[in-house]
Amino acid sequence: MTYPIEKIRADFPILAQKIHNKPLIYLDNAASCQKPNQVIDCLSDFYRQDYSNIHRGVHTLSQRATDKYEQARDKVKKFINADSEKEIIFVRGTTEAINLIAQTFGRANIGKNDEILITAMEHHSNIVPWQMLCQQTGAILKVAPINKQGELIYDKFESLISDKTKLVSVVHMSNALGTVNPVKKIIAAAHAKNIPVLLDGAQAIPHMSVDVQDLDCDFYVFSGHKLYAPSGIGVLYGKQALLNTMPAYQGGGDMIRTVSFEKSTYSTLPYKFEAGTPNIADTVALGAAIDYLNTVGMDTIAAYEYELLIYATAKARQIGGLTIVGDAAEKGAILSFTLDKIHPHDIGTMLDSVGIAIRAGHHCAMPVMDFFNVPATARASFAMYNTKAEIDVLMEAIQELMTVFG
After folding, report:
1. Catalytic residue among 33, 42, 217, 364
2. Average confidence (pLDDT) over 334-342
3. If 381 and its partner were Cys, which of 29, 31, 322, 397 is the partner (CB 3.0–4.6 Å)?
4. Is-contact 161 190, C-beta < 8 A?
């Protein structure tokens, strides 16, 4: 079957514009993806026709809004193949999900001299919450090393698993390098010692099929804005048995069963972790984004994006003075690179002048930059709507940059 690239591109209105009189080439998808008409229209229609606060309302609008909100939860459940909708907690994004786990599961189960194991390729969101927990409890953060290809050194990782390890928290796909970790192998090794595993799926979820039951992870977290949905909405998946043991994260409305001045009791899953009025419209739109992705097919998208990565990598290797940062054997649609004598911020600025949007900086992964001994990288990240023709324009612009900077 031919990949329907023209149809897909037509669904994303922002791609039709010009930047500095050049057609927009949007290659900053690892930071945030653009939104299709189906998601934009869903948001607009919801606010025009169905908006109301959800749960407990007996009037028609409240019931309609509640139905759409809970339908979105069911869509997420099916999208990642969770066992129950009770395992789907709506949060603001990956960062809040990890902080929630740190301050509930972590505070309840991790104490002085216990260990939390992460990798050297983590996003700051999977580093800082654990450092904060260690400061609070006296626990110790252990970091498994990576090699110069940007791959986890698995033997070293496995050697760091010990009787003191109380949680393993690893990125499924690195946002700075594109590396896809051997997560099933990691989970099996941790579970052999009864250690729960959290997967940061923020980068992986837009690029591949995710089946949490097949992975057997204990937690899986991701953000909507990288999944063609609005910002400000994300998902925490947790095994029901674990979530039931965890204390509440925030107190307030909707997460309670009873409240008195002497004592409050909490609601059942998933509402125990969803205090206050939620991000209703954007949650409904997350459901629309999942519908859209299901129409195209995640396996179809993954195969197409892999073609883009292979094509871009081959083109990049032909440019003298360009160094690819992160060359893992298992890799997603991210090309991080440096150019001799040109700072990544200058690369980003110059490419923007010809309509090309990339990301330049440390990508919230400063330890990765330190490991590769660079202040930052330029990062082109691909999505389902990008094309080989756009990659050609990118590579021509990079070569022109090299000429200009001598």
Report:
1. 364
2. 96
3. 29
4. yes
